[in-house]
Amino acid sequence: MAYTPTSQQATHGINGATGTNGTTGGTAGITSNTVSVDSTDNTDGLAHVPNSQPNAIEIAIYHRLSKVIDPELGRSITDLGMIAAIEATPRDALPSTYDVIVHVELTVAGCPLSKTITNQINEAVAAYPDATLIPHIEVSAMSQDKLANLVAQLKAERRQNPFAKPGIKTRIFAIASGKGGVGKSSVTANLAATFAALGYDTAAIDADIYGFSLPRLFGVHTQPTNLNGMLMPVVSWGVKLMSIGMFAGSERAILWRGPRLQRSLEQFLSDVWWGSPDVLLLDMAPGTGDMAISVAQTLPNVELVVVTTPQPSASEIAVRSGLVALQVPMKVRGVVENMSYFEHKGERLEIFGHGGGQRVSEQLTHALGYDVPLLAQLPLEPEIREIDDSGRPAVLTPSGELADTPLAAQFTTLAQSLMSSTK
Fold first, then answer.
1. Please, are residues 81 and 4 in contact by the beta-carbon 8 Å criterion?
2. Would you say residue 125 has pLDDT above 60?
3. Residue range 171-223, pLDDT digits in tens
4. Would you say 203 and 277 are in contact if contact means Cβ atoms under 8 Å apart?
5. Are the C-beta atoms of residues 293 and 174 closer than 8 Å to each other?
6. pTM of this prediction?
7. Which of 16, 130, 406, 420 has the maximum number of C-beta atoms within 10 A of its C-beta?
8. Which of 84, 147, 87, 136 is nearest to 111 (CA)?
């Protein structure tokens, strides 16, 4: 005999207000034949279980699984209706020992994060304190009707760009440069990876439609999952990613302009399920073209980070990318000088000259009327290019942790300074 969540239990966390145990108030239950649990009292989720109920372990496991979060949708797997049934069977030869079968219905067959979800379920079941539970996970896909109902509810929450809502807590940083070739995308990738490694829920959009490079820098070779017209961002190195480079035909030249370019950004924001990230980074196209204007119009809370290299030919143009803030509602958070120096036998060689970042900082501070600090001076290191091109941001170890290197320490300081500053 197995416990199966009722339809109300499986979806109440999407439509209602969150209760004390991560679920909503109101009637919701787990049923076995005709027995149900009324969770109007949300103090422990088990308040109305009859004392004679033999399968209280199954109910307790269900509530433990409410803390397992789908990494793509950012919601509890119980709220999303992914737990179809739970069966606990005692092992006669071993006292207080049970085999627990958890029937999991993923949103799509072959979900790329299936192993992540099942590992969390195994951990939640095995950690049950009052008995020895041996988990067994059976995975299948939701029916088309169930998936359509879930997607409809999720879309109802996202009828418009979620990052333009008043009171949004997501910090949005657009990484810009006046010209190409200054390492802007590498800075974006390593900054995003640093945020994720520090524990922030991090998302990144490749807004450089013509020269997209984030998929390569993150080692992404798959397309976003399509849930009945709603896209799930690809997750790599802890970062949720979206780029035109993930789609078929992206090897061709893209000749978009004006409205179509703006629509691509709006789709990346509105048609993708981002959850509620702490940080959203946009890797901007060089210069001050259509996309810069679209970002300012679409994301009123965006903050600009200008990347330059030390030489005047780059820094003078970088100033122009920051001066866009005089014409659109966008604040310049600071300047990052990339390729500042090359370490050689204990000596810093300034291959591209020096002072470019400071010049940009001073000129933007004077023109905009508020402090635009020089946030970081990053080194020129062949290893950065080699590791980035391998599909792993250079600030990370192969296991995905922040590396114990001066570069990782610099990016950590940069990330912390961006998050500690006020909007």
1. no
2. yes
3. 999 998 877 788 899 999 999 999 999 999 999 998 877 678 899 999 998 88
4. yes
5. no
6. 0.70
7. 16
8. 147
